[in-house]
Specification:
Elements lengths: L1 H40 L2 E3 L5 E3 L2 H12 L24 E4 L9 H6 L7 E7 L12 H5 L7 H11 L4 E7 L4 H6 L1 H4 L23 H17 L3 E5 L21 H16 L5 E5 L2 H6 L1 E2 L4 E2 H4 L5 E5 L5 H7 L6 E6 L8 E3 L2
Parallel strand pairs: 3-4, 3-12, 4-5, 5-6, 6-7, 7-10, 10-11, 11-12
Antiparallel strand pairs: 1-2, 8-9
Helix pairs in contact: 8-9
């Protein structure tokens, strides 16, 4: 019996010794975990949104040596060069297509272009006021200005999807159809109140009149929706040929310059949601003179309101026109019969 008792006592003692060892191990692990946690906490950075990240000490050393142009072992490192790429402005080498392409055959017209051409222009509104596609602008439909069909709209869609940069040419204020239909509210009128005729027996819109401006804006917006890359506004001025003394002016509420500026601003606002350039053509003699009272154009005031100014030029007159445009922060695009040596251009019919 004593032997058995001694054996039982040994087993009991052995069990108490194992429990103490386990407790010691747990304490050591807990202490180590606490030390690791404290060490990690020194390198935790919390962001404003509640997220966190670790910034370890050797990162600071790497950043510092990179900033100083040396590596950690003290050897020289090449200086970092920061390159800021400027946006590339691509020149447009444009050719004006005959309006007949709107009746079909636009694909053949593109295939026949010179390989250097990367842009095409097409007239969509004539100075008679006629619109050469099936415009949905209510004012154009009501005054009978729409002479184009759905075939023309499909042709324009094909041109705009062709990969070429596309330019829509629009006669802005030289417009017999809408002016005749809205003499009082939109047209340049005679002293009698009847619509005024120029030398060619055609009519003009008066930009100081709100209805005239809104009509021009509606046509421009529709062309932007068709997908053109650029709108080129011709006849963006008051008439310059005809019996000026017979024009009714006593009801004008602003100067010619102010009226043209107002229309330009309304066009810019209407097109601000479209990725499209807004351009204007100005006669060469006006550019060279700097202004003209009859048309209301002051080049230094009007040109900066547009992305580009198109001017008919020859090889001989282009240097003079370019010199006259110096100091005006608007791109000059010559309209020529042959391509000039450099820069954008539009080859016209």
């Amino acid at each position: 019996m004593a032997k058995v008792k001694g054996t039982r006592g040994y087993k009991s003692y052995h069990g108490r010794s194992g429990g103490k060892k386990l407790l010691v191990v747990l304490l050591v692990l807990a202490l180590a975990a606490a030390m690791i946690f404290m060490l990690i906490q020194q390198h935790v950075v919390y962001d404003a949104d509640g997220s966190f990240r670790f910034e370890l000490p050797w990162h600071d050393r790497i950043d510092q040596t990179a900033a100083e142009g040396t590596s950690e072992d003290g050897s020289a490192q090449p200086e970092l060069e920061i390159i800021v790429e400027e946006p590339i402005t691509k020149d447009t080498y444009a050719c004006e297509l005959d309006a007949a392409v709107l009746q079909g055959g636009w694909e053949a017209a593109l295939e026949g272009l010179d390989p250097d051409i990367n842009a095409v222009a097409v007239r969509v509104k004539k100075n008679t006021g006629e619109i050469l596609y099936d415009s949905h602008v209510a004012g154009a439909v009501d005054c009978g200005a729409v002479v184009g069909s759905s075939v023309a709209r499909d042709s324009l869609q094909g041109l705009n999807d062709s990969g070429y940069y596309t330019i829509a040419r629009i006669s802005a204020l030289h417009d017999s159809r809408y002016a005749y239909a809205h003499m009082t509210d939109a047209a340049v009128c005679q002293l009698t109140g009847y619509v005024w005729y120029d030398t060619y027996s055609t009519h003009w819109l008066a930009p100081e009149k709100e209805l005239a401006r809104q009509y021009v804006v509606d046509i421009a917006r529709e062309c932007a929706e068709l997908g053109f890359d650029e709108l080129l506004l011709d006849d963006f001025c008051y008439p310059r040929d005809g019996r000026m003394s017979r024009i009714k002016t006593d009801e004008r509420t602003m100067t010619k310059q102010a009226a043209l500026a107002l229309l330009a601003g309304e066009l810019q606002k209407a097109l601000e949601d479209y990725d499209i350039k807004l351009s204007v053509s100005i006669d060469a003699d006006i550019v060279l003179a700097g202004s003209e009272e009859r048309t209301g154009i002051v080049v230094s005031e009007l040109a900066p309101k547009f992305d580009r100014v198109y001017v008919a030029a020859t090889e001989e007159t282009l240097p003079q026109i370019a010199a006259a445009m110096e100091g005006i922060d608007t791109e000059l695009v010559p309209m020529t019969s042959t391509a000039p040596g450099e820069g954008s251009y539009l080859i016209t019919e």
